[in-house]
Design a protein that fits this description.
Helices cover 18% and strands 23% of the residues. It contains six helices and 13 strands. It has helices at 5-13, 106-111, 119-129, 166-174, 191-194, 203-210; strands at 18-22, 41-46, 62-66, 74-76, 97-104, 116-117, 137-141, 163-164, 180-183, 215-217, 230-235, 244-246, 248-254. It starts with a helix and ends with a strand. Pfam families: Cyclase. InterPro entries: KFase/CYL, KFase_sf. This is Kynurenine formamidase.
Length: 256
């Protein structure tokens, strides 16, 4: 008789003891995305609907989509910034599931849109919630996904959005050996760093990708996930030479 333990486990996960939280923005031309990219383009190739161009009339509906690889909720592969880094195709399936830790600094970000998550924030989190486990996906909750404009420019055109400090990311990698990070803005680093003309603009992103981790950007619904105890499942195309792509991520959360 076949072993059905995994089937039983899946039935339990889909039962009343757990809930699923989608951490992904819907993909469309209106999706929040980094300011340097054009909106997604969605061209109709074939359709079965009335009124369709006769040259496109068919028993199926098909679109041709054109989109930047780092668009909307997306994964960044190490090769995004580093020529010798791994591509999307080189990540194994078992590397796509993690314990999920959510560090909530949404109140601080509401008071200061240029907020940087620090090593002290991580240590304070651990004092309350316990040590961050090895291999965890650590997400920075800012509630930034609720904003229509991710750049949040002031009257002078200066962007203001929160991000990780480089020291915080280094601490998570070097002292906790985490598996990945994620956040709601379109950049890893805060706007106070990325907009400096006299400084290297992406130190945090450069670092996390240099240590053979991928990251997920432009996440949402982290406010629906507890600080600890959940799992995150991440998925993206197995793209040859892929430096990034729109991703799907969801959390499996115990019901208290």
């Amino acid at each position: 008789m076949a072993n059905t333990k995994l089937w039983d486990f899946l039935a339990e996960l889909k039962g009343p003891k757990y809930r699923f939280v989608d951490l992904t923005h819907e993909l469309s031309p209106e999706t929040p995305h980094w300011f340097g990219f054009e909106p997604l383009k969605n061209d109709l190739l074939f359709s079965y609907e009335e009124g369709t161009d006769p040259d496109k009339l068919a028993p199926m509906k098909v679109f041709q989509v054109s989109v930047a690889t780092q668009y909307g909720t997306h994964v960044d592969a190490p090769k995004h910034f580093h020529g010798d880094g791994r591509t999307l195709a080189e990540f194994e399936p078992e590397e796509l599931v993690f314990p999920l830790v959510v560090i909530d600094k949404s109140k601080e970000c509401a008071e200061n849109p240029d907020y940087q998550l620090t090593v002290d924030d991580i240590k304070a989190f651990e004092a309350e919630n316990g040590r961050i486990p090895e291999g965890a996906f650590v997400a920075f909750r800012s509630d930034w996904y609720k904003k229509a404009d991710l750049e949040n420019k002031d009257e002078n055109g200066q962007p203001h959005y929160p991000g990780w400090s480089l020291d915080a990311i280094k601490f998570l990698v070097e002292e906790r050996n985490i598996g990945s990070i994620g956040h709601e803005p379109a950049d890893t680093d805060p706007a106070t760093i990325t907009t400096k003309e006299d400084a290297y603009p992406y130190p945090g992103e450069q670092y996390i990708l240099s240590v053979d981790r991928f990251q997920i950007e432009v996440m949402r619904n982290l406010d629906q996930v507890p600080a600890t105890g959940s799992l995150i499942v991440t998925a993206f195309p197995k793209m040859k030479d892929g430096v990034g792509y729109p991703a799907r991520a969801f959390a499996i959360v115990p019901v208290e």
